[in-house]
Amino acid sequence: QRRKAVMRLPPLPLPWLLLVEEPGDPRWIDLVEAGASSVVPSSVGLDDLVRMLDDLSVGRPVAWPGREQLEQQWRRLREEQEEVQQRMLSLSPRERSVLALLHDGLSVREVAELTGVREGTVRSQVKAVLRKLAVSSQLAAVAQYDRWMQQTDRS
Questions:
Q1: 8-61: per-residue pLDDT in tens?
Q2: Which among 32, 54, 95, 155 would be 20 to 30 A from 13, CA to CA?
């Protein structure tokens, strides 16, 4: 949802600050890329905020402590998200369905009963999921699926 909201932002003809609770959250990159001049914690004092706005109004850059480190984190996070996305898309519809059922808490036996296949078939599908997701356990696959679902919900 955040990315969709950012995509709807018209280009602003003036510099602007992003005032946030958690300035260290690497997901703010979308708004920075949309034109925010700086990310500022909401805990900043009023005098400092006024100074920053004055600096922006005359074209001076606003100091943003730790910006380089955050941008590196943003790049890593985005790369990880894209990698997870590609891995999830590499799953067949059946493999994704099996993974979703495991995510919902079903056992391999319950997945087999629900889908009308043998337990061995489900185990083979789980092995294919583990291989494609490059994880070594069913728990890790379910955790990666959960992160992917959260990521999908946010975009």
A1: 555 666 788 888 887 666 667 777 777 777 778 888 889 888 888 888 888 888
A2: 155
- What is the C-alpha to C-alpha distance for residues 80 and 134, in angstroms, rounded to an integer? 13
The helix/strand/coil state of 112 is helix
Closest CA to 42 of 63, 15, 22, 66: 22
pTM for this model (two decimals): 0.64
- Cβ atoms within 10 A of the Cβ of 20, count? 15
Q: Counting beta carbons within 10 angstroms of the beta carbon of residue 1, is it exposed (0 to 12), middle (13 to 18) or buried (19 or more)?
A: exposed
CA distance 81 to 5: 19
Torsion sign over Cα 47, 52, 58, 63: positive
Encoding tokens for residue 34?
């949309």
Q: What φ, ψ does residue 59 adopt, rounded to 5°? A: 90, 5
